[in-house]
Amino acid sequence: MQSPIQVYLDSLRTRLASMQGGELANYIPELSKADPSWLSISLVTMDGVAYSTGDSEQQFTIQSISKPFVFATALADRGVDFVTRKVGVEPSGDAFNSISLNPKTGAPLNPMINAGAIATASLVSGGTPEAQWERIIASMSAFAGRELGIDAAVYRSESETGFRNRAIAWMLKNFGIIDGEPMASLENYFRQCSVLVDCRDLAYMAATLANGGLHPLTGERALPVEHVERVLSVMATCGMYDFAGSWLYEIGMPAKSGVGGGIIAVLPGRFGIGIFSPRLDAKGNSVRGIEACRQLSQDFGLHVFRRAGEPAMALGRVYTAAEAPSKRQPTPDMRSYLNEHAQRIKYLCLHGYIAVDGVEYVIRRMIDMVPDTASFILDMHQVDGISESAARLLNEARLRFAGDDIAVVFSRIHGRHAIEHFLSTTAPKTDHGYLSFEDNDLAVEWCENRLLGDSQQATVIRVALGDCALLKGLPPELLALVADAVVKKQFAPGEPILTTGEAGDGHVFFIEQGYVSILVPLDDGAHQRIATLGPGMSFGEMILLGQSKRSATVIADCQVNCWILDADDIDHLAHDAPMLRITLLENLSRDMAEKLRRATQWIAALA
Ligand code: GLN
């Protein structure tokens, strides 16, 4: 099936094909040989997919579109301070070939006009002009994701006729902006302008900027991320020369044009766009290129100042542990306490990319809930990422809530380094760090224990064999028989007691003391805990229903004492005392009915 994006681009090209107006650049003689009807549009996504329409393989010279990339290279090589001393970042509102120098320092106003670009070409690293050229072409190639070359004829043509640029280069030398040999830097500038690209290359170069400096297909870093915003800002304010203000006003994307007929536009984090159509307006910008960007911006809502979404988007469902309690099966005392207080544990499902605006909303909602809250569980499962400043605010909020004795814990961020990284690096030094649980069940159980007071106390509860749920209601003489048949065993913390898929040895376990986790394996090799069982509860009892393979893994959470009963012994005993089997099965069905009820409640809470 054809993507509607492709259909849209094809129809945009058809609509623009008939658009008249504009002239080929002719001040560089070789450029006037272009076919005025050429038209192509490419759009590259952040995962590196290119949609192209028109003459997308037609090569042309990049011209001024090289300027942001060489500026980027100079920033990477020489650092911000050094480069800023040589070239300003103020929009000149002048034509590309104007001689706009700061009257005091002689520094060109910005790197997008020729004066600034010739200066930046002299700033990239390399001991000789040749080495500097190698650096420039390698860097531009990294942005494009393939090895680029130059159009020798265009280069020669410009070098032979570029007297105005030659004058600019000498001015720069005069003011000490260019340290070395100005004519050598100028030749490198002419070479960078004559680099051959097609429309797709432009879109990939733009996409690399949109993607924080990382080429979306090759994965090569073309520019350290900290410089990307600088390059895009200069493009936004100066990229279209004396049309830059109207461009930002109407179309609103950092962009750069070249007299070869190309335009790039960059949508940070979203798209890179390349357009090629060689007829230019009086300011040297591609006529149909501007129109293509205008329509793309309107039809897809791409203006960078357009509001991105509702702040409330960062927060999805909010619910409480009354609706979704832990899967631990609590003792009757614990249950009645939790029934009364579980709504004081709040789950907040965050989603999307969490930035400052989103986190402000989440924190405000949390503050509103303070009077009725003991703990917050921030479920991060659907969070795609978090900004450093948002992580810092979350940490600050967590500490303030802690001051009011309200816990804020995270769930489901394990192994998601981008999120974990900012949450740990932005936590104040004095803090013990944030608490994070692999799943909501562990998180809510921790919060329940906190509600119940000292969670340690729970582990010292010990029951008698007759109090075990499965044996409830057995007449004393039958219980005595069972007591004779069981063997007692102790398990160390973390010790596996049963393993999924293992052939059962016919044992049923009754917990006297301690807790075990019931885990089921997931496809990716990890485990999901489905329940925690404590004193008086049983596991492995499915054997009584004839199931021979263990359906879950059971691990001791702490030191656990169990009574173990062999299913054969039960058969044996039940032979003479059928009441034993009847009672066991009755208790078992009651237990299963309760599990089913809880599972249904959970499914409803998650829906
Ligand atoms: N090489 C051209 C020049 O310096 C580039 C100008 C442009 O594309 N605007 O004149």
How is this structure best described in words?
With 607 residues, the protein is an alpha+beta fold. It has 3 domains: 4-300, Beta-lactamase, CATH 3.40.710; 311-454, 2-Layer Sandwich (Transcription Regulator spoIIAA); 465-606, Jelly Rolls, CATH 2.60.120. The protein is built from 21 helices and 20 strands. The strands form 5 sheets. Strands 2-1-7-6-5 form a 5-stranded antiparallel sheet. Helix 4 packs across helix 7. The two termini are 33 Å apart. Bound molecules: glutamine (GLN). Glutamine is lined by residues 63-64, 96-97, 114, 158, 165, 193, 258-259, 284. Glutamine binds at residues 63-64, 96-97, 114, 158, 165, 193, 258-259, 284.
Largest beta sheet: strand ordering: 2-1-7-6-5
Mean pLDDT: 90
Shape: elongated
The low-confidence runs, each spanning 5 or more residues with pLDDT under 50, are none
Q: How can the largest sheet be summarized?
A: 5 strands, antiparallel
Supply Rg. Answer: 35 Å
CATH topology of the largest domain, what is it called? Beta-lactamase
CATH class assignment of the largest domain: Alpha Beta
**By CATH's scheme, which homologous superfamily of the largest domain applies?**
DD-peptidase/beta-lactamase superfamily
